[in-house]
Amino acid sequence: QVQLVESGGGLVQAGGSLRLSCAASGRTFSINGVGWYRQAPGKQRESVASISSSGRTNYADSVKGRFTISRDNAKNTMYLQMNSLKPEDTAVYYCNFLSAVAFNGGPWGQGTQVTVSS
């Protein structure tokens, strides 16, 4: 059974930073592409950042230069370091395997809420 648990969200002021974590069981990050997604109120879920099994990264234009995706294979955990946060970053953030999203559209966990105040 594959499980993904997001954590690290919270309330921060604009310009602040947060580090999100995604812990996985049942599937290995080191041989699978993984990514972060977010859904803001009234908007569709969107891809934020991804990292492939070989370490290639990709970012949404809106977060380039501010967010960094990484993973710790020994812990089977990935992270999203978010700096210079803006109110428009406010959303529920989810992690998932790229293949699950591409081929099945999910499933999705509970996510972690990030709220950026101005």
Describe the structure.
- With about 120 residues, the protein is mainly beta.
- It is built from one helix and ten strands, in the order βββββββββαβ.
- pLDDT averaged over residues: 95
**Strands ordered across the widest β-sheet:** 2-10-9-4-5-6
What best-fitting shape do the alpha-carbon axes yield? Answer: globular
Q: Largest sheet at a glance?
A: 6 strands, mixed
**Strand-and-helix sequence, N→C?**
EEEEEEEEEHE
Low-pLDDT segments: none
- Discrete helix count: 1
Q: How helical, in percent, are the residues?
A: under 10%
Q: What is the β-strand count?
A: 10
Beta-strand proportion: over 45%
Provide the structure class.
Answer: mainly beta
Calculate the terminal CA-CA distance, rounded to whole Å.
Answer: 40 Å
* Computed Rg: 13 Å
Summarize the structure.
With 118 residues, the chain is mainly beta.
